[in-house]
């Protein structure tokens, strides 16, 4: 089953072409990755898919339904949720509350429910809290639930952002450079978490610079360079690709890592 | 339970966290018991508690800015004044009509302006406050212009009226408590979480499926309803309304109360309204410098205690930490 399909996506900023005629599709099963040098247009591609920045040309299909031009919140409600290259946590809230906020699209209570607290609202609140604790355990932050998000070390902030996105029960989770700024050990742990998320049935699409993480974690790789797709395939296929090696100038060691 | 220094100090801290709110509530209780001149001052503080609690939902929880809340207090105040004094409606019905009118106005005003961000939103709301003031001055046939409307009856249902100062104060206290309770319930719910989310990062909120525009608008309307209720209470307690009473000075006062009390906290509005409400009493001799004192208080709070008096425990914690150089920190 195809989870995500993009057709001829192009994004122009004035004269600058950030993405040019990008077409690929992502299977529902497994972990996929978009790689490419800095400025290749990876984040722009994510922004177009997730509705933050409509494409100049081209179309996006999620579960074979077109989502081109929908608002980000509509796309998220349908089950496509992304994280940001620069973490966007709710810094002044607790770690637990950050994840609870992520339950928004899967819960219903409104203003009247908040004020009158009928039984179903109390049940919903309890379930929200319980599910959030489970997700914190999934990323190994169970013990930090009551801390202020801003007081977490950087690596844990990135994990919290993943737990928060997972709280929406996404069908497709898109992670923009989740390993940026993580040390070796943290990257290792992240890789395991991503695999577990995939095993639990969520499609994962990540943008990544860390080749070790990509080659260990991804089943399918799309390579961008100067906004164009230059290769696509399995990790071993990508590692052997002439264009890819060239794009990462002298980056052969990087790919071998 | 052991009484190790750690548990004692953590208990002290917990006590300190609630102390400001308890002190403010104590002041209200004292006024009810005393029944003297202080009743007027505390009553005024309680009406502002409601107004500021509404502002806090929009500014403290949702992180937006409105300089135009006086407009909504004005709609509630004038609806109650005109409908009861001129048309003889019962106060409760007039209040409800005021709330409905306010909510509609807030929707009509908020729908286009809440697309604006930051400074633009602030400027747009400022304009609304100024426009309503002008309407109150110019629409003489209804508002009686600068002269204002007098002879507004006391609050009451049927033949039962709240005539004594003490009865009125008790009623105001109940209304203030209900307002703060509603504010707390809203904050600790899916709705409140959506507000703090869009306050923290609109992009992150949208990526999680939160309809930012809709939640901002709802918060705006709720804060307007709070303002409307405070306006209604005000005219019934004072028995009079004129444009001067719903001008920008209301906004300046409410902002001072909100920041001094503690923006974003549930009890901050009560603390700020009582403290700032009592301030003119303690600085009577400086009457002419009142705005100066408000300004100075605001600046000092913003610099030294951005969480306001409600976050006193945080300030003390910070002081203790800097005073006692950390022994535990290993080299
Ligand atoms: N909002 C924008 N306005 C103008 N140029 C942009 C904008 N966003 C990205 N770009 C440009 O598009 C190109 C691709 O950027 P980006 O997608 O962030 O690359 P990557 O994520 O692969 O590092 C860069 O040259 C960048 O400067
Ligand atoms: Mg990027």
Word description of this protein:
The complex is a heterodimer of chains A (257) and B (331). Chain A has 257 residues and is of the alpha/beta class. Chain A has 2 domains: 1-79 and 170-257, Rossmann fold; 89-168, no CATH class. In chain A, 39% of the residues lie in helices and 24% in strands. Chain A is built from 11 helices and 10 strands. Chain A has helices at 42-49, 72-78, 95-102, 111-116, 119-138, 154-166, 184-199, 211-217, 235-239, 242-247, 252-256; strands at residues 2-13, 16-27, 31-35, 57-62, 65-66, 80-82, 172-176, 203-207, 220-225, 228-233. In chain A, the strands form 2 sheets. In chain A, strands 6-7-8-3-9-10 form a 6-stranded mixed sheet, sandwiched between helices. In chain A, strands 2-1-4-5 form a 4-stranded antiparallel sheet, with helices on one face. In chain A, helix 3 packs parallel to helix 6. The mean pLDDT of chain A is 93. By secondary structure, chain B is an all-alpha fold. Helices cover 73% and strands 2% of the residues of chain B. Chain B has a two-stranded antiparallel sheet. A two-stranded antiparallel ribbon of chain B has the order 2-3. In chain B, helix 2 (38-61) runs antiparallel to helix 10 and helix 4 (91-113) runs antiparallel to helix 10 (212-238). The model of chain B is unreliable at 326-331 (pLDDT under 50). At the A-B interface, helix 2, helix 3, helix 4 and helix 5 of A face helix 7, helix 8, helix 9 and helix 10 of B. Magnesium ion is lined by residues 42-43, 85 of chain A.
Instruction: Write down the CATH topology of the largest domain in chain A.
Output: Rossmann fold
Report Rg of chain B: 21 Å
Chain pair sharing the greatest interface: A-B, 41 and 28 residues
Order of helices and strands of chain A: EEEHEEHEHHHHEHEHEEHHH
Q: Average pLDDT value of chain A? A: 93
Structural class of chain B comes to mainly alpha
How does the major sheet of chain A shape up?
Answer: 6 strands, mixed
């Amino acid at each position: 089953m195809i989870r995500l399909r993009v057709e001829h996506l192009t994004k122009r900023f004035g004269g600058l072409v950030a993405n040019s005629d990008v077409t690929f599709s992502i299977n529902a099963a497994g972990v996929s990755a978009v790689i490419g040098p800095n400025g290749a247009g990876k984040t722009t591609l994510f922004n177009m898919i997730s509705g933050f920045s409509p494409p100049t040309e081209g179309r996006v299909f999620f579960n074979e339904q077109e989502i081109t031009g929908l608002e980000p919140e509509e796309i998220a409600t349908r089950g496509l949720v992304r994280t940001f290259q620069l973490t966007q946590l709710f810094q002044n809230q607790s770690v637990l509350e950050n994840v609870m906020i992520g339950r928004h699209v899967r819960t219903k209570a409104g203003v009247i429910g908040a004020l009158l607290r009928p039984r179903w609202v109390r049940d919903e609140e309890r379930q929200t809290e319980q599910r959030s604790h489970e997700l914190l355990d999934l990323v190994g932050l169970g013990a930090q639930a009551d801390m202020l998000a801003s007081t977490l070390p950087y690596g844990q902030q990135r994990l919290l952002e993943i737990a928060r996105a997972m709280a929406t029960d996404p069908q497709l989770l898109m992670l923009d450079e989740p390993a940026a700024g993580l040390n070796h050990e943290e990257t290792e742990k992240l890789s395991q978490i991503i695999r577990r998320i995939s095993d639990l049935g969520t499609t994962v699409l990540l943008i990544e610079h860390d080749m070790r993480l990509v080659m260990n974690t991804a089943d399918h790789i799309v390579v961008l360079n100067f906004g164009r797709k230059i290769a696509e395939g399995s990790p071993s296929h990508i590692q052997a690709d002439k264009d890819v090696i060239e794009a990462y100038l002298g980056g052969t060691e990087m790919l071998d890592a | 339970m052991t009484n190790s220094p750690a548990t004692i100090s953590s208990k002290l801290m917990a006590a300190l966290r609630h102390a400001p709110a308890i002190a403010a509530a104590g002041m209200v209780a004292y006024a009810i018991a005393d029944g003297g001149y202080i009743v007027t001052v505390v009553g005024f503080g309680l009406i502002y508690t409601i107004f500021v609690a509404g502002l806090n939902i929009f500014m403290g929880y949702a992180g937006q800015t409105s300089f135009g809340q006086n407009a909504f207090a004005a709609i509630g105040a004038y609806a109650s004044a005109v409908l009861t004094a001129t048309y003889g409606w019962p106060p409760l019905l007039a209040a409800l009509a005021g709330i409905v009118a306010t909510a509609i106005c807030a929707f009509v005003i908020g729908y286009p302006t809440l697309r604006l961000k930051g400074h633009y939103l602030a400027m747009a709301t400022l304009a609304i406050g100024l426009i309503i003031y002008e309407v109150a001055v110019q629409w003489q046939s209804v508002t009686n212009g600068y002269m204002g409307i007098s002879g507004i009856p006391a609050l009451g249902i049927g033949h039962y009226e709240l005539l004594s100062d003490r009865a009125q104060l008790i009623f105001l206290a109940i209304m203030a408590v209900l307002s703060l309770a509603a504010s707390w319930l809203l904050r600790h719910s899916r709705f409140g979480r959506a507000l703090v989310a869009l306050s923290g990062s609109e992009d992150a909120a949208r990526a999680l499926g939160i309809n930012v525009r809709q939640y901002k608008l709802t918060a705006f309307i709720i804060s307007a309803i709070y303002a409307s209720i405070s306006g209604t209470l005000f005219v019934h307690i004072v028995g009079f309304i004129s444009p001067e009473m719903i001008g920008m000075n209301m906004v300046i006062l409410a902002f001072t109360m909100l920041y001094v009390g503690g923006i974003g906290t549930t009890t901050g509005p009560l603390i700020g309204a009582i403290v700032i409400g009592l301030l003119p009493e303690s600085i009577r001799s400086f009457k002419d410098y009142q705005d100066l004192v408000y300004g100075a208080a605001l600046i000092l709070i913003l610099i030294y205690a951005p969480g306001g008096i409600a976050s006193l425990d945080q300030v003390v914690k910070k002081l203790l930490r800097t005073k006692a150089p950390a022994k535990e920190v290993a080299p």
